[in-house]
Amino acid sequence: MSRQRVSLRQELPLLVWLVVVWCALWQDFSPGNLLFGALISVAVARMFYLPPVELSGRFNILHAIPFALMFLARVMAASFQVMYFAVVRGPRVSKAVVAVPLRSHQDLLVTATGHVLSLIPGSLVVEVDRSSSTLYLHTLNVDDADGVAKVRREVRDIEARLIRIMGTREELEALQQEATA
Amino acid sequence: MNPEPSTVDIVIDAVSAVFMVVGALMSLAAAIGLLRFPDLLTRMHAATKPQVLGLFLLLASIGLQMRTFWVWPVLLVAWLFQLLTVPVSAHMVGRAGYRTKHLHREMLTTDELEAVVQAATQAAREDSADSPHTPMTAEDAEIESDAESAAESVGKPTE
Amino acid sequence: MMQIVLIVTAVILSLAAAGAILRIARGPSLLDRVLAADVLLAILGAALCVDMAVNQHLNNLMLLVAISVIGFVGSVTVARFVADRREEPLES
Question: Do A102 and A35 have their domain in common?
Fold first, then answer.
């Protein structure tokens, strides 16, 4: 294959994930099944070769757990909010398309931010500009410039949380400088 | 099931019953949103968000009812699959919807993407100058005339 | 108690499915129909979940995963198709 091999360390999260999925689908976490799953995941990762996802190499579990809880709470809020809009406001709900420039230029982080934004209240990613890492969001319940500014602030806050969880060190430093400035 | 349910069983049953009803209500919310929202992108909010919570609640109620621990990983995997796939498909549909003008622009309070897309389509049109020109003005007038009838006429299936 | 819950959820899910089918029938555009079909699949998945929870079995679990994957692949494919058609003049 012409492309360069990824190191095992970079591939390890993918392999672990594949093994977990395999065992979960069989509902069997016995050692034999784990071993067979590991073999299959290595074979799959070798045969269906995709460009590797570039991980930053750090993952802060202390920030991840509160983020996961907040995410769950926001998903619930989102569902009830959409329910409220659907039942009460109906066709009269106001909407806007907002451009939000992000700090990070990493594919993984932009993707994660987009996913989280699509699931939390009132926003949906319509378009992504990868070269300038700008997200274009379709938002509900935004009437004026104040609302647009609020959306933008929220998005950048979520991105900051994600950077604290799994951003690179440079991004983290930039974030801290921004906070102190 | 044992004939005389203990207090724990009753509590678990009650919690999972509430979860199931709320999860089903989420599906209903999605359907109401689909029917009541005026355009495609707004309907997409309704189609994506309640699904995620609804499936979470229903899977949680299965996990509670089975009363074994080995089902939780597979339920978690099923939910994570949905978390990963729903935004992607919503984004694809939304992107296609925005670009094919299934959107009533006059109903947006702010639109910061329009200029970018206009520039991109302009460039694409100049690239393929030999292709027949799209009657943009007629369509725009149609959109402005009436929201509902415009939606019907723009999106008429090509049978 | 589970029987009551089953009936209540069945009614709610039937209403939801009726709404989604109505949106499939009314359209107005192809993408609306795709979206509504996706929601209909999700409602089917919810019904499978309720069945599993009430009758305490896991036979439908693979079907559930398969349904969500089919919904994903289907809507992404159609969205791609529609996005590609945009290059041609819009006939309406």
Answer: no
